[in-house]
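Reopening this ticket.

The earlier resolution said the output was attached, but the attachment link was broken on my side. Pasting everything inline this time so it's all in one place.
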Amino acid sequence: MLQRDDLLEATEDGRLVVAVHPGEAESFSEGGVDYEIRPARKSDLSGLVGVIRQVCEDGASVVARELADRLVYEDIVVRRTPTRSRVVFVGTVSDEVVGWSDVELADHPRLSGTAELTVGVIDAYRRHGIGSHLVQRGVTWAGTEGCRKIYQSVPAPNETGIAFLETNGWEVEAVREDHYQLDGELADEVMLARRIE
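Inline output:
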């Protein structure tokens, strides 16, 4: 009955999991690069984790680096539990993952209406619109889940990431001084947010 009502779906290896419908694949072409933005699949897990770790190796996002570790531990890309939901979108070029956006919702009454997003694209594929499409896909999905606001925390040395988010309609809400320790140095955390219409 749960499968009939579209609440469960079978994975590639035949297991039943909670169905989450974050949408279909969309194709784009910009600056000579053809790419697709779509919901991540289990088969993307290894490439997804590799891309997150590559983007975050210089401390660009502490939160995203933790996401990579959770993905490896949980061995799934989509999670829906009574307390937390996660969906991941990937940007792919020739079926290879080159970027991601991850949206996590806390299913707690005091946090309802907010979501956390991480996003990243490997250097070779930046400036082709992939990151902007990934952000928009995450924001749109959060809106369909009833969120009114989405946020992301970025280490202050990641000036490129902060500028990218501001270009995409995000605003700095707060700065927590000396929040991160990156390569033995203390760094501020810049907390950015965007309202969802």
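Reporter confirms the inline version is readable. The longest helix spans residues 130-144. The longest strand covers residues 171-182.
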